[in-house]
Amino acid sequence: MNKYLKVGVIAAVAAAFTWSLNFVAPFFIGDYSLGDLAATRFVFSGMIGAIVLFLHRDLCRGLTKGDWIATAGLGFIGYVGYFITVMVAAVYAGPIIPPAFLGLVPIVLAIAGNAYSSSISWTALRLPFTLAVIGLLLVNASSLIQFNGEWNASHVIGTCSAIGAVALWTWFGIANQRALSKRPSMNAWVWTAMMMIGGSIETLLFLPIGHGLGLFNAQNLGFGSVAIAHLYLPAFMLAIIASIGGAWAWTVASQRLPMALAGQLLTTEMVFATCFGLLVHLRWPEPFEVLGIALLLYGVVKAVGAFHSTAKSSSHDDEKILGCSSTRACG
């Protein structure tokens, strides 16, 4: 595996690791809502993004109005818009249905990425995709079996919102890579900071709407000392690690990997999230969870192998064409 691809793979897995913390943070916020946590986190992310941008101010001189518009749009699609749809899904559909749909994001993103760029044959992706789907179903099995199958209008609204969240993040993944491909010299830290600043401003604009939807509980619990341990600290940690760190790692991965591979690597997020969940609940995994994790990891290995083989074959063909061209020996 060449160094460029290796850095991309490590960055994608690192992004998945940081984002898996989103599944753990709710256990530490007490009576504060997920809306409180997300809104506070995005505001912190914007503040940290401004500091990052200041530290890289020498690289900001060439930024254009189009760069700011692009990152503001990406900040809304991948963060604020995604947050809104996830919150609505959780409110209307409960805690079981949304995670089952959101777990499909890596697969949908990988399929959409390959449909957009045709970076590898669909035949080569068949086994990695199959392993990932089965693995995700097994990892989420304990949640899925809790659903009693009774549907009502609330479940429909929540499910549609969860599907909207999947669509938004898929859109973000494709649009982000496309925007970066037009800016090959863009610094990953600067790009990340701009997205966070845009998302932070959009979060502030969303607060009145979120309040009307009943997504926030902080106004009842208070913003003083009681909020330090259960709101400010978890939100700040997520802002640094998951928002800034995760977005930076994903930017690095998007600059180096085909989206079909980057999306497949995101399945490791569910592996990390499952492991963290087991630690929080102080229990050993069930056999089907172990099997699910194993299939997810094996799917990732097969996907990386497939792309590595494709890249190696392409490089070999290029060398052959170059050699033929220089000797004019090809007939």
Name the descriptors.
0% strand; mainly alpha; 331 residues; 14 helices
Provide an overview of this structure.
The chain crosses the membrane at residues 7-25, 37-56, 68-90, 96-117, 129-147, 153-176, 188-211, 231-253, 265-284, 290-307. The protein has helices spanning 3-20, 34-55, 65-93, 97-102, 105-117, 122-139, 141-144, 153-181, 188-212, 218-221, 226-256, 259-265, 268-281, 287-327. The radius of gyration is 21 Å and the shape is globular. The protein has 14 helices and no strands. It starts with a helix and ends with a helix. 79% of the residues lie in helices and 0% in strands. The chain has one domain. It has 331 residues and is an all-alpha fold.
**From the alpha-carbon coordinates, what is the Rg to the nearest angstrom?**
21 Å
| Main sheet summary | none
- What's the domain count? 1
Secondary-structure class: mainly alpha
- Report the average pLDDT across residues: 84
* Helix percent band: over 70%
Globular, elongated, flat, extended or rod-shaped: what is the shape?
Answer: globular
In terms of DSSP E residues, the strand content is: under 5%
Number of helices: 14
Number of strands: 0
Determine the N-to-C terminus distance. 32 Å
In N-to-C order, the SSE pattern is HHHHHHHHHHHHHH
**Poorly predicted spans:** 315-322, 324-331
Give a short synopsis of this structure.
This protein is mostly helical.
Which helices and strands, and how do they pair?
Blueprint: H1 3-20, H2 34-55, H3 65-93, H4 97-102, H5 105-117, H6 122-139, H7 141-144, H8 153-181, H9 188-212, H10 218-221, H11 226-256, H12 259-265, H13 268-281, H14 287-327
Helix pairs in contact: 1-11, 1-12, 1-13, 2-3, 2-9, 2-11, 3-8, 3-9, 5-8, 5-12, 6-14, 9-11, 13-14
